[in-house]
Design a protein that fits this description.
Blueprint lengths: L4 E6 L6 H11 L4 E6 L23 H12 L3 E2 L1 H11 L3 H14 L2 E4 L5 E4 L9 H8 L7 H13 L3 E2 H7 L5 H13 L3 E5 L4 E5 L2 H9 L3 H16 L6 H10 L5 H14 L3 H15 L18 H18 L1
Helix pairs in contact: 3-4, 6-7, 6-8, 6-9, 10-11, 11-12, 11-13, 12-13, 12-14, 13-14
């Protein structure tokens, strides 16, 4: 006999143990076919899933590249474009196709060459998530309890390797014990990664696209307030990182960010991190000119590969910083 109905439940990983037991009880003996979709953490898989599991992972890189070649044929994608799309889409063809269309529409992916052209990626840092995909990345986040959403927003704002102490500083309404529970559940869901060092505990959002989506949906008021708190946290550390302090102040639209970013640019230049030096110097110039608007601040385009040209552009920017100060 065929089942009389098909019931699809998405994100069953958010269900509690009692909910899962109810589903198993209802499903047994009923003429209903159940399709349960669990977005599990592949690094920490859940034990004791409901029913027979069919695992769908990301497309292998070589097959992913072949799909991109077929989409762009007779052109082909550059290595940087492949890396960007594979990372942002987690190897999912549907998301990669949507991102590719968005990049081309925004001018972030350009075609160069003749009949057999190559699509190059430019200005990747300024690419925002397409509106049609933002809901895809946030559908799991929106189902989380309020405190866990708040903690995830704080981690997303603080960036890579956020100290737990800083997360607790932003989330003043969450007790320390409740924060421990939030972090444990977010890690179980595969949304964050935790790294324990000799000094503290560091947290990061696992998927950079999810992190960007969470950050972009924060209100301006909360974003600026938290950026000021984050800047104060890094400024009072034993060895303040001018880049971190300057970026948080800049995104809080604080004109004091100009001096910190100028220091960060000179520091990056000393270590020959020229792309970061150029970015910091550009932000410093905008801040010194009173254009401290992080939402619309233009991201520097990639520098040319010629080292002499790279140094010339960088030193011109640093000279302008010193003149504006």
């Amino acid at each position: 006999t065929f089942p009389s109905a098909l019931i699809v439940l998405d994100h069953v990983e958010t269900l509690g143990e009692l909910d899962r037991q109810v589903i198993e009880t209802v499903a047994n003996g009923a003429r209903v076919r159940w399709l349960l979709v669990e977005h599990a953490d592949t690094k920490n898989p859940r034990d004791g899933g409901i029913g027979n599991a069919v695992t769908l992972g990301e497309l292998p890189r070589d097959e992913f590249v072949q799909v991109l070649n077929d989409i762009l044929a007779p052109d082909r994608p550059s290595r940087s474009l492949i890396d960007f799309l594979h990372k942002r889409s987690a190897g999912t063809v549907r998301l990669a196709r949507a991102f590719l269309s968005h990049l081309i529409a925004q001018g972030a992916a350009t075609r160069s060459g003749g009949s057999l052209a190559v699509w190059q990626l430019r200005d990747a840092d300024s690419v925002k998530i397409p509106d049609g995909l933002r809901a895809h990345y946030l559908q799991h986040v929106d189902r989380l309890p309020l405190w866990e959403q708040l903690a995830l927003r704080a981690i997303a704002l603080l960036g890579d390797s956020a100290p737990r102490e800083a997360v607790e500083l932003l989330c003043t309404d969450i007790s320390r014990d409740a924060m421990s529970g939030c972090i444990a559940h977010l890690q179980t869901q595969g949304l964050i990664e935790l790294r324990v060092t000799d000094e503290d505990v560091r947290l990061s959002v696992t998927d950079p696209t999810c992190r960007q989506a969470v950050y972009e949906t924060m209100s301006y008021q909360l974003r600026e307030s938290w950026h000021r708190c984050a800047a104060a946290y890094w400024r009072t550390s034993s060895q303040p990182d001018p880049g971190r302090v300057g970026e948080h102040l800049f995104r809080a639209r604080d004109p004091l960010s100009a001096r910190w970013l100028a220091r960060a640019a000179r520091r990056a230049q000393r270590f020959w991190s020229l792309d970061r030096a150029r970015l910091f110097s550009r932000w410093a110039i905008l801040a010194a000119q009173g254009n401290c608007d992080a939402e619309y601040a233009p991201i520097c385009p990639p520098l040319k590969t010629d080292p002499t040209r790279r140094q010339t552009v960088l030193f011109d920017s640093l000279a302008e910083i010193l003149r504006l100060q």
